[in-house]
Amino acid sequence: MAVVTGVNGRRIIVGVTGGIAAYKSAELVRRLRQKGAEVRVVMTSAAVAFITPLTMQALSGNPVHTSLLDSSVEAAMGHIELARWADAVLVAPASANFLARMAHGLADDLLTTLCLATEAVVFVAPAMNRVMWTHPATQHNCQVLQQRGVRLLGPAEGEQACGETGAGRMLEAEQLLLALGNHWQQGALADCRVLLTAGPTREAIDPVRYISNHSSGKMGYAVAVAAVAAGAEVVLVSGPTALACPAGVECVAVETAAEMSEVVKARAGNSQIFIAAAAVADYRPTVVWDKKIKKDAAELSLSLARTEDILAQVAARSDKPFCVGFAAETNDLEKYAEGKMQRKRLDMIAANLVGPGLGFNAADNALTVFWQGGKQDIPRADKGIVARALITLIAERYHAQSTS
To answer: How many CB atoms sit inside 10 A of residue 143's CB?
Structure first.
């Protein structure tokens, strides 16, 4: 289990909205206080139908606020003063209704008003039925919130209270604690230039067909966001994805391995850290048809040639940056990952198993990170949380190497 740091002495508002996942908020508040945080709880009118304010008061050690016109709020510190008090606001669970109201800038209860009035970072941990989560309206609302700087934590995938299975489960308390702790580790890569690749590449067969893989780019994009949060200047060289360029990141779009290689070659000499998170196609057709291949023959053979090994080329440079590779494996994870690290002379490698529900196209991931003489597991969590933990490790090893 990763060590949670950063919340000791912090002042955190935990917002609770209506939903069965509200029971997890009690454990979250208990763990926050155990880690040394000062916690105040704000509950919506729907939340009190699922868990009592008395429970949250006992766990937080402070009065629970449930109304914008609550006399205990106005008499004690005022809702604006409460918003100023916080170092962070974490809404867990955040219902689909709350996300919609927040995205539209409504301030019709205490919690939405606090989120508008606070200058602290706001985190939301969505929790809802899988269909509600994937609905275009919910996805649009989340994109709007992220563009405004709200940090989205989760949701996770799995069995839901309604009996269905899919994305929409609220993250567990330990995962949320890890995300909060990582937030206060910012600045570890201040003044560093990070070059990062992400997504798949496509190698054309004819004008309508290509060779590629299942990479969605989500992990690489999450690493880019985490690196910016740590103070780095980030260039993201991305293959084709459906993802928007993260705020504060310079994005360069490419399609083929050759195009990605050219951009990386041009940028590597000006970077302190290179993170190769892209799933680059290993082979490309030696002949590319200029017209669509018709289905006339019973069989079709393709001649394939290896693509350039971008990571190995960067690691072999005389002015090489700190090189971090990725290894997605279906078996023998440690053997193949360490072999790749040694063979390509990498400084670190982040390895993960891929398969149903994990790795490619999944919301969650888990990594085992190796370096010369050490390794550390990053437990399964939302890819944003995993990315921040990975960046923390990269920063530690990079600075250790720089001062040795």
So the answer is: 13
